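Give me the fold.
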Amino acid sequence: MAKLNRALLFINLHKPDAKTLAEEIRIELEKWNFRSRFFTFDDKPEFERDGPYDAAFSLGGDGTVLYAARAMAPLEVPIIPVNLGTLGFIAAVHPGEWKETFENWRQGKAAVSRRFMLDVSVERRGSMHTLGPCLNDTVISASGIAKIIRLNVDSELPAAPGENAEYIRLGQYRSDGLIVATPTGSTAYSVAAGGPILEPEMEAIIINPICPFTLSNRPIVLPPRETVIVEVEKEQRSGVLLTIDGQVTQILEPGDRIYLRQAPYQAQLIASGRIAFYKALRTKLSWSGVTGDSNA
């Protein structure tokens, strides 16, 4: 049994029941001699990593889980993703099940789903700027009214000992944008743009153009240890915007190079494994005749 004494609660105040549930969790954790810290937000959250924590709770929808995962994954803190939206692909724990889920995990009985993440950085005029981790997807698109943008995409292959890395030009894309997604993010924007659905515990990188000018530009799945390099063409005139998980944004300039590579850590989600994923997939895509929507 894990020795636990400190928990962090990410509380999305846009969800009506979030504060009430957070107080319920705090009271119950106190009975087990656990200390709780609340991190509440109703706009763009600005969380500074601290710790240590033994576990975290995400009280909201999938968007809340994405934020919590980017904050907690570098600290290797597992998250119980409690769903206060409707149907979520990632937030899989029902509010009435959090106590059982937590106790099962505390006793080593609950599975922890480990999710592949990307590290995102931008090189501008020779200087590298780190933008942080990504659990779902990174989207590069026009920053204003929809316009075609021009992007060059390369793949850097891992170098063998004593050799230099190899670069392969994957393509020159003229499109409304480009999605670089993880398996967890394959069921988000990428699938809406015609991309493949991947089992969420796989390790892979999806490159998916948005409404490409050339119909032969199709989605491609790369192995996890390749680095994807996206360059904004120097002749690009319209504004270009980079968005991570729909929450972190960066304005790009012509000549910028975006590097997306496997993060050295994984998001750890408690009770959000394969079974929960397939159930959500079946319902969300109406494979069983039932419809539903996920909330952020």
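The longest strand covers residues 166-175.
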